[in-house]
Amino acid sequence: MQQAASGQHTPVLWREAVDALVTDPGGLYVDGTFGRGGHARRLLSRLSPAGRLVAIDRDLQAVAAATTGATRVDDPRFSIHHTSFAHMVPTLGDLGVTKVHGLLLDLGVSSPQIDDPERGFSFRFDGPLDMRMDTTRGESAADFLARADVRKMTEVIRDYGEERFALQVAKALVARRESGNPVRTTAQLSEVVAGAVKTREPGQNPATRTFQALRIFVNAELEELEQGLSAALELLLPGGRLVVISFHSLEDRIVKTFIARESKSVFDRRAPFAEPKPSRLVALGRVKPSDAEVDANPRSRSAVMRVAERTEVAA
Ligand SMILES: C[S@@+](CC[C@H](N)C(=O)[O-])C[C@H]1O[C@@H](n2cnc3c(N)ncnc32)[C@H](O)[C@@H]1O
Q1: What are phi and psi of 271, to 5 degrees?
Q2: Distance 272 CA to ligand 1 centre (A)
Q3: Quick count: other Cβ atoms within 10 Å of Cβ 273?
Q4: Residues β-bridged to residue 56
Q5: What is the Å distance from ligand 1's center to 305 Cα?
Q6: What percent of the chain has pLDDT over 90?
Q7: Could you tell me the distance, in angstroms and rounded to a whole number, from the CA of residue 173 to the centre of ligand 1?
Q8: How many other C-beta atoms are found inside a 10 Å radius of the C-beta of residue 268?
Q9: What is the DSSP string of 59-126?
């Protein structure tokens, strides 16, 4: 087995994200995806002594990194909470927070998660096929593959991995399971996928799409994102900013559609003579990493950051 890397995570688009987020240095901000605090630390350095940052991560190792050892965030303006950003309204409510000045979501997995073979996120390392960000709940990818039928597996691999050979991969996985040798590790999954995917995309491991699909499914990433965006709308103060960094088209499509929908004024068909209801967001734009950032951090290549500002209209 290969060794895990150093446990570092290089934040993507951090300067652009912090610039877009901070409208009031004395305000209250939420980092819904703490990771290793790349954005959080830089955000704190931009806030005044009156500012406050509430961080969230669904991964216990991220929470541990923020609270213990050399990586600890030792700052009275900071706190971190183990939950999903989909549930941030009640979590913040418990802290007496109902409104915030800005909210950041830097989606997907962190480098320490990918680089730890025990987490099962990567085909680059052999390890148990887990893939859960929150290992305290839910079903691992291996457990899903141990119970799902061909139809369900095909659906997941096709819809979340955009894999043309989804049916072939699913059939191969079920055949292997039925022969008494179910897939339990990342290397076994890679091997099965490599045998089922008939065309090769240049520079891409054939297992890339299937790994992405299982990760999205196991962590209900798209549903969580929808809920997180609705929560953001509820929490943001007028003038407050929503900043979301996505790493694949399925996520970005959800963010883009949400911002577009909430940036339109709504005509109520039941009240045809009433004024249309004004929009709750104003889209402020879309940012991609510079060539220099992509050269320095290849992981940033697929990143897209979208920014929106909350209007005065009630949620
Ligand atoms: C790309 S990393 C964030 C990196 C971070 N911005 C940094 O610079 O260190 C994504 C993090 O978000 C967490 N995460 C993903 N989905 C989440 C969710 N629905 N709720 C809370 N945390 C989530 C993951 O566990 C991971 O630690």
Answers
A1: -130, 70
A2: 43
A3: 5
A4: 81
A5: 15
A6: 89
A7: 30
A8: 11
A9: -HHHHHHHHSGGG----TTEEEEES-GGGHHHHHHHTT---EEEEEEE-S--HHHHH-GGG---TTS-
CB of 112 shorter than 6 A to ligand 1: no
Indicate if ligand 1 lies below 6 Å from the C-beta of 188: no
Question: What does DSSP assign to residue 29?
Answer: E
What kind and span of H or E run contains 153? helix 150-161
Q: Which of 31, 41, 58, 91 to mutate to test the pocket of ligand 1 (most atoms within 8 A of CB)?
A: 58
Q: Is the CB of 160 under 6 A from ligand 1?
A: no
* pLDDT band at 4; cut points 50, 70, 90: very low
Return the ligand 1 atom nearest residue 36 CA.
9
Cα dist from 267 to 37, 276, 277, 279, 308, whole Å: 42, 4, 6, 10, 21
Q: In the block, which residue shows the tokens 């190792």?
A: 61
pLDDT, tens only, 139-187:
999 999 999 999 999 999 999 999 999 999 999 999 999 999 999 999 9
- Cα 81 to averaged position of ligand 1 atoms, centre (Å): 12
CB burial of 182-215 (b: ≥16 within 10 Å; e: otherwise) equals bbbbbbbbbbbbbebbeeeeeeebbbbbbbbbbb
Residue ID of nearest Cα to ligand 1 atom 18: 84
Ligand 1 atom showing the smallest separation from residue 228 Cα: 19
Give the DSSP per-residue string, 204-269.
--TTHHHHHHHHHHHTTHHHHHHHHHHHHHHHEEEEEEEEEEESSHHHHHHHHHHHHHHTS-B--T
Give nearest CA residue, ligand 1 atom 2.
110
3-class secondary structure, 188: helix
Q: Is the CB of 121 under 6 A from ligand 1?
A: no
